[in-house]
Amino acid sequence: MGAHRIRRIEADAAERLLAGGVGGPLHLAELLGRAAAAARASELAGEEAAVTAFRSGRQVPVGVGRRRSTPRPAWATLFGVKVAALVSAVAVAGLAFAAATGVLPNPLRDLNAASPVSTSPAGAPIRTSTGGASSSAASASPRAMPSPALFGLCEAYVAQVAVSPGKALDSPVFTSLIDAAGGKAQVPAYCERLLSSESPGSSAKPDKSGHPTGPPTPHPTGPTDGQEVQDQIPE
Amino acid sequence: MDGRGRRDESGRAAGVDAARARRAPIPDISPAVALAQQGDEDAFRAVYRAVQPGLLRYLRSLVGDDAEDVASEAWAQIARDLTSFRGDGDGFRGWAATVARHRALDHLRYQRRRPAAPMPVEGLADRPADADTEADALEALSTDAAIALIATLPRDQAEAILLRVVMGLDAETTGRVLGKRAGAVRTAAHRGLRRLADQLDQASPGPHPAAGAEPREVDPPGRR
């Protein structure tokens, strides 16, 4: 046999030995067997200290430590981080877009007759009313189309989700969006429908429960089959 | 889990009990890791018990008697970063080994201590006259001595072997821990095994089942 073949046989035997089999020289196999023998109690002496460290890690307040383990909603992945970043830039121009398509604050004024309009950091005009006032306004006047304010809020929401998924809806800015969608959990699906339409003036009219009356939504809130939730956490 | 726990019954030659060469099985800790990440303390304990013994033995080859201290530092970091970990049980073992290794190298850098003195290979030759094979000579070897013997190899070879054998990592994961290609760690491990076989041959002369026939030059132990 050639030297190469001998080496390959040795390499195969070595691999079997390393993987847990009993190949190769027996004394070598026994040496490795000793090295990997069952645990002794003395080797677990540091357990309580490790558990203490584990416990103190658990006391991190909710929303800080948990942020990384919250999966992104599927639709956020659909947009992708890059797109979301682009959208955040676009959100500032949301009002300009709305103006260009001809859907101007008139409908907004009809809905918000009693509330002042102010501009959010995202650039979309919003109401500064409390949750109670906005929900009553929403239920009082059925809309033929989602207001441009909600469109802008959805864009801002997408940008927020890309940056801090767990806290995206915490800002009072999103109160009216949450009400229009019918709750925080419905916001992702609501915004996806809204943003996937060609303009704020088209697409389905959502009812208060958040179920669409228009085209069916293929993406519920949360990861679905075929959607990869990308967690880019360094190890 | 391929390859782990397989037993080759050919070890029955010359009255040797193949059970001596059997290693503790490597449990699949994937479910426990996931639960521990959710905050389940019992699951964390299970993970610790499955991983720590191997981790300690691996660390002993790097930092000797300081293995316990370095291991506790490693677990503190593992506990802290646990929620950021992504992967299964095998991936967790690789991550734990990586964390422990970094701690060990830091320790060596700042402490500049040498590992504990290795077990002299000559001691293996002291066996009862009526022992029939070299396997009996190993009867007296404890796990610590086996680890210490492996630790006498050049460090890259010792690590390549121990990460596979006591941490249960495959070649690819071992490569990631060591920052090398899988082929390079396989080569290092094979070289290390050959050196160990030669040392054992030298320590207990006589016929060796399944061993190579030709004597070879052996480097003095402890050279790094």
Which SSEs are present, and which pair or pack?
The complex is a heterodimer of chains A (235) and B (224).
Chain A: H1 3-19, H2 26-35, H3 47-58, H4 74-92, H5 94-100, H6 105-111, E1 117-119, E2 125-127, H7 131-140, H8 148-163, H9 175-181, H10 187-196
Antiparallel strand pairs in A: 1-2
Helix pairs in contact in A: 4-8, 7-9, 8-10, 9-10
Chain B: H1 30-37, H2 41-63, H3 67-81, H4 89-111, H5 134-137, H6 143-151, H7 155-165, H8 171-178, H9 182-203
Helix pairs in contact in B: 1-2, 2-3, 2-4, 2-6, 2-7, 3-4, 4-8, 7-8, 7-9, 8-9
Structure description:
The complex is a heterodimer of chains A (235) and B (224). Helices cover 49% and strands 3% of the residues of chain A. Chain A has 235 residues and is mostly helical. Chain A folds into 2 domains: 3-58, no CATH class; 71-196, no CATH class. Chain A has a two-stranded antiparallel sheet. In chain A, β1 (117-119) and β2 (125-127) form a beta hairpin. In chain A, α4 (74-92) packs across α8 (148-163) and α7 (131-140) packs across α9 (175-181). The longest helix of chain A is centred in the middle third of the chain and has 19 residues, at 74-92. Chain A is elongated, with a radius of gyration of 29 Å. Chain B is mostly helical. Chain B has 2 domains: 28-116, Rna Polymerase Sigma Factor, Chain: A (Orthogonal Bundle); 119-224, Winged helix-like DNA-binding domain superfamily/Winged helix DNA-binding domain (Arc Repressor Mutant, subunit A, Orthogonal Bundle). Chain B is built from 9 helices and no strands. The longest helix of chain B has 23 residues, at 41-63. Mean pLDDT of chain B is 80; it is low at 1-17 and 123-132. The chains are: A mainly alpha (235), B mainly alpha (224). Chains A and B meet through α1, α2 and α3 of A and α2, α3, α5, α6 and α7 of B.
